[in-house]
Specification:
By secondary structure, the protein is α/β, with parallel strands linked by helices. It has helices at residues 28-35, 43-46, 51-60, 73-78, 85-95, 117-124, 145-153, 195-208, 226-240, and strands spanning 2-7, 38-41, 66-70, 102-108, 133-136, 157-158, 160-163, 166-167, 178-184, 215-219.
């Protein structure tokens, strides 16, 4: 199953595009969750929500909805993976209020954080076996056999990432689920992706993961609603290739042109 969503749902320029002009912002999550089956929450990176907020997201979404959550920058960017026990415990103490809605936890590492596989291993071992973790290193020193071995041993996914239609990380399969983030396309209007680029990612995912293995796909190119329309196009290409895909908006609902 390919689960397709966007990185966040609260973007002002989506009003009048994806969100009806008259829809109150307090109902945007419900609108989103009726049309997508998953979302990646990025604001937890900047300010970790209270447990009650995660619980409220669970109460406001359908039973089949999945929320992937980006780890607080306190662990990844301030502590830089040092002394991870308290940050991980605090994060889990809040995010687990999502219950069965909790999807993978995303650890995005700073671009200037050089490889430290021991620190990564010490961090990953703190997560319970039933919590999926995806890791997005961004310094090239991480692309080693030692890094891959730690991810495989801890059953964590290496994030596959794209910018401008090109992979920016190795396409290692390190566990039984995939995680793809699409940051910026090359098509017009910016920052959309073209159909050829999206079709290539469909093929890469389905070559690596079976129909019974989830692959989470999040579009992070939010300006102008590009993420919504690209998610719909990606899902259509995957279905056309015969692969099961989670729900996405109809083409009419995903029309993010002004008006």
């Amino acid at each position: 199953m390919i689960l397709v969503g966007t990185s966040g749902w609260q973007y002002r320029d989506w009003r009048g595009r994806f969100y009806p002009q008259a829809l109150p912002q307090r109902l945007w999550l419900e609108h989103f969750a009726d049309r997508f089956a998953t979302v990646e929450v990025n604001n937890a990176f900047y300010r970790l929500p209270e447990r009650d907020t995660f619980a409220a997201w669970r109460a406001r979404t359908p039973a089949d909805f999945c929320v992937s959550v980006k780890m607080s920058r306190y662990l990844t960017h301030i502590k830089r993976l040092r002394e991870p026990d308290e940050p991980v415990a605090r994060f889990l103490g809040r995010a687990t209020a999502l219950g069965d809605r909790l999807g993978p936890v995303l650890l995005q590492l700073p671009p200037n954080l050089r490889a430290d596989v021991d620190a990564l291993d010490a961090t990953l071992k703190l997560f319970p076996a039933d919590v999926r973790v995806a890791v997005e290193p961004r310094h090239p020193s991480w692309w080693t056999a030692a890094t891959r071995a730690v991810l495989e041993r801890r059953r964590a996914a290496l994030v596959w990432a794209d910018r401008l239609g090109r992979p920016v990380a190795p396409r290692w399969r390190t566990t039984d689920f995939g995680y793809l983030r699409l940051h910026e396309g090359r098509a017009r209007p910016w920052p959309h992706y073209g159909r050829t680029a999206l079709g290539s990612w469909v093929g890469r995912l389905t070559d690596a993961f079976g129909a019974d293995e989830p692959a989470y796909v999040y579009f992070n190119n939010d300006p102008g609603g590009a993420a919504v329309t690209d998610a719909v196009t990606f899902a259509a290409l995957a279905r056309r290739a015969g692969h099961p895909v989670s729900r996405v908006p109809s083409p009419a609902e995903a029309d993010t042109s002004d008006g």
